[in-house]
Amino acid sequence: MNMRTRRRFLCAIRRVVAAVFWVAMAASISPGCSALARREASTRTPKDPATPWIPPAKAIPRVEPGRKALLIPKEFIASKSTWTLDDIVDLALRNNPATRATWEAARAASARVGSERGAYLPQVDAAAYYSKTKNSYSRQFSVDQKTYQPSLTLQFILFDFGKTRADVEEARQALYAANWTHNAMIQDVILDVETAYYQYLYAKAVRTADSAAVQEAHVNLDAAEERHKAGLATVADVLQAKSNYSQKKLALQAIEGQIQTIRGSLATAMGLSPAIDYDIGNLPSAVPAAEVSETVEELIHEAEIGRPDLAAATSSKRRRRRKRLSSSMNGRRGESNSTFGRAITT
Asked: Distance between CA atoms of 305 and 214, rounded to whole angstroms?
């Protein structure tokens, strides 16, 4: 056996021993890894379906004390007791999370349109390959071989039966639908704010009326007691006056609770904390009913034309139509690839 054959034989033996060693190591580690994975799964999930999950410290969101995340202008803070409907709508559009979510969705849809348009641009891939080989033929003779191979790949679409155009149009219709949905959400937020606003004004007006009713019931009770002392009224009259007074007080307490509930609902519609200290004015003394009745037909006609939910549904329908066209053209796509490469051997 010459020196070259002996060297190859020893290399083959070393490779076999190394392979056996690594196989044995893998076989011994696998049971331990499986047990570790089971233990990890048991600590990351509840132990049974009836046990709630206890989050670790890393999973609990950290809330910084005193953090001001709400957008409340300084002039609004200075006049918390005189907020108008315009001020409340402005605050709602700034802080309501629903409008922010639809706005972010519209921005994502806009980015997707740009991503789909990128299919019209060529794709260029550059790579380089280098290898070094040493061949020994004897103790005194060896050859070093180095190989350099750069490559450049240019890929562009020649004709795809309208698939790319359909994909771009689908993304554009999705963008239209997202924008219409955002407009609809703005209208919903404004409607919720206006509803809560007028409910709050109505409840405050009812409280004023109930306060006057309580005072009147108290006066009637005093009068009934005086008439009873003078022998002009019976005990039943006094008891009836007391019952009426108690009912009026109960109604006043009930409307006070409703005011706090509506006040919290209005703050939530504005995206603010229900515990924030604010107040609004009272109902106007005169309502322009004639002006409202003259324009109601025009408002209905305008609402039928510009309803964003119907426009969003139309855009979604067009998007699905384009998606179906893109799927039908997916199998018939022609591409041209050009690869330029060069190998240099020294």
From this structure: 50
